[in-house]
Design brief:
By secondary structure, the chain is of the alpha+beta class. 28% of the residues lie in helices and 27% in strands.
């Protein structure tokens, strides 16, 4: 395929009333009401056109692809055609389908993807926001049931979506049914024979993580919609899910409620990102959680804030209604507008770039980022081609966008960042708290928290970088209610906050330096 073709020859061919297609006879482009030209949108890998064909709506995709990528898509087409599932619509790879005259007036046929377009459907997180706005437990409960069922199907099927998140998962606004899109890059052993077992696991881990976190989030929300205050609205249902401080919230709820499947699922997630997934066990836990009817105890330390949410519903409803009216006007200017405000700002998208507007619709931070998170306590994580960074509400750089991983924990005022495989901690204003010296850092909502050094030893550090428990373990989990699990000499056992074994029968010899320093 000639990757130099721009959008203009494609529009010319698509607009030709006589058609320049081998098989898509009678295809009709959906036009922009202002310009009359075929509507289109761009990504870094393709140009997309919404079209109608044989009475149905589709997205027509032209890819900037190498021969290897096109071979992969051919395999994807063959694989998807073998699946019988309601979660995936039509997907057709059409090689040498569309005749295009390039800038030198040379004709050539280009490859296309024709993907069924669910025009009336909405993004997953937007549907959740609608349910939360109306405090609709019935629809949230149904969504929890439907998503749990889809997750069980997805994790039982030998392929990985690899790009599963709120923008690739649609919900029908009437019946709540789910629909997966953007399937070009799925991975499966059927067409990745060169992958070893470890490689296949890496491909599947993204789906494991998203399915687990979304299931937990929906289970909590359908029990008590006001808990969205702690889930940061619907932001947890957006990518990238790198590491989440919400694990501590899920852990607290699970322990208070004594919901056994939830406790075990949270324990499995607590070791991110070095978790070793047991897919069979994960499926068992998700199935058990789906059928478990244990009432969740959500209040505890969150009681005061949740009570405020119940005491002042009218004020919030009025504010939300005003924003929803303004949002409808903004949708004429932007491709996408977040359904709710966070910290007084809303994320907006224009031509696959993201920025922020205030509650009046004034653009405060231009659409220049590949991805943005919601603002919380005056800070937000953003992504550029160079990596992730942290900005304030003026769009000023707090941490440069160079990091492979960046998570802002607004409750603690700490950012955890990773660069070239090493992780550290930074304060609210970008000050270095813990240098980039660890290959992994665990949940930072507890003190001390687990970390792994460059010698693959596990230990525990405090927020100022001092060592609380020496680096001597083969593996370790985060602290939970004053207890953590560590592995030494191939044996797992619990320790307390001083690093001593909790069980008297466990006899382990520790090497405790008199004045431990950062290695």
């Amino acid at each position: 395929m000639n990757t130099s073709i721009s959008i203009h020859p494609l529009i010319e061919s698509l607009s030709n009333p006589y058609g320049r297609f081998k098989t898509l006879q009678g295809i009709e482009a959906i036009t922009d009401p202002l310009t009359g030209a075929p509507s289109s949108f761009y990504t870094s890998e393709m140009i997309c056109f919404p079209v109608r064909w044989q009475g149905k709506e589709y997205t027509l995709k032209y890819l900037y692809g190498s021969d290897d990528n096109l071979l992969h898509i051919r395999y994807v087409d063959q694989y998807l055609s073998s699946l019988d599932t309601p979660y995936i619509g039509e997907f057709h790879y059409l090689p040498q389908e569309m005749l295009v005259f390039d800038h030198d007036d040379t004709p050539q046929y280009v490859d296309l993807i024709l993907m069924e377009r669910a025009a009336a459907w909405i993004y997953f997180n937007e549907y959740i926001d609608q349910c939360l706005h109306h405090q609709d437990r019935v629809r949230l409960s149904q969504l929890y049931e439907d998503f749990s069922q889809m997750a069980l199907w997805l994790l039982s099927t030998p392929f990985a979506h690899r790009n599963l998140h709120a923008s690739t998962l649609l919900v029908h606004p009437e019946d709540g049914s789910l629909h997966l899109i953007d399937l070009e890059q799925i991975a499966a052993p059927a067409f990745h024979p060169e992958l070893d077992a470890q490689g296949e696991e890496l491909l599947l881990n993204s789906d494991n993580l998203v399915c687990s976190l979304y299931t937990l989030g929906l289970k909590v929300l359908q029990e008590e919609p006001a808990t969205c205050r702690f889930l940061q609205g619907s932001s947890m249902f957006k990518l990238p899910i790198l590491y989440t401080p919400l694990i501590s919230l899920f852990r607290d709820i699970a322990q208070r409620s004594q919901c056994r499947p939830m406790i075990e699922l949270v324990e499995m997630l607590s070791d991110l990102p070095h978790i070793e997934w047991d897919r069979i066990r994960l499926l068992q836990l998700l199935e058990a959680l789906k059928t478990d009817r244990t009432p969740l105890e959500l209040y505890g330390s969150y009681a005061e804030t949740l009570q405020q949410a119940h005491n002042h519903p009218q004020k919030e409803t009025t504010q939300d209604a005003q924003w929803l009216l303004r949002r409808q006007k903004l949708l004429h200017r932007y491709t996408s507008v977040a359904p709710s405000l966070s910290d007084g700002l809303s994320e907006v998208e224009f031509h696959d770039r993201w920025g922020y507007v205030d509650e009046k619709g004034v653009e405060l931070i231009g659409c220049q980022y590949l991805w943005v998170d919601r603002f919380c306590e005056g800070r937000a994580v953003v992504q550029t081609e160079e990596g992730f960074g942290l900005i304030n509400k003026h769009g000023e750089e707090i941490l440069p966008w160079k990091y492979e991983l960046l998570e802002w924990d607004c409750r603690q005022g700490i950012a955890m960042a990773s660069f070239e495989g090493l992780s550290g901690l930074f304060g609210r204003n970008g000050e270095e708290l813990v240098p980039l010296r660890y290959t992994w850092i665990g949940c930072i909502d507890s003190d001390p928290f687990a970390a792994r050094d460059e010698q693959d030893r596990y230990g525990y550090i405090r927020r100022d970088g001092t060592i609380a428990i020496p680096f001597q373990f083969e593996d370790a989990t985060s602290f939970n209610f004053g207890k953590a699990m560590v592995k030494l000499h191939e044996q797992w056992f619990p320790i307390d906050l001083t690093g001593r074994p909790i069980l008297d029968e466990v006899e382990i010899k520790f090497s405790q330096p008199a004045n431990p320093q950062v290695p």
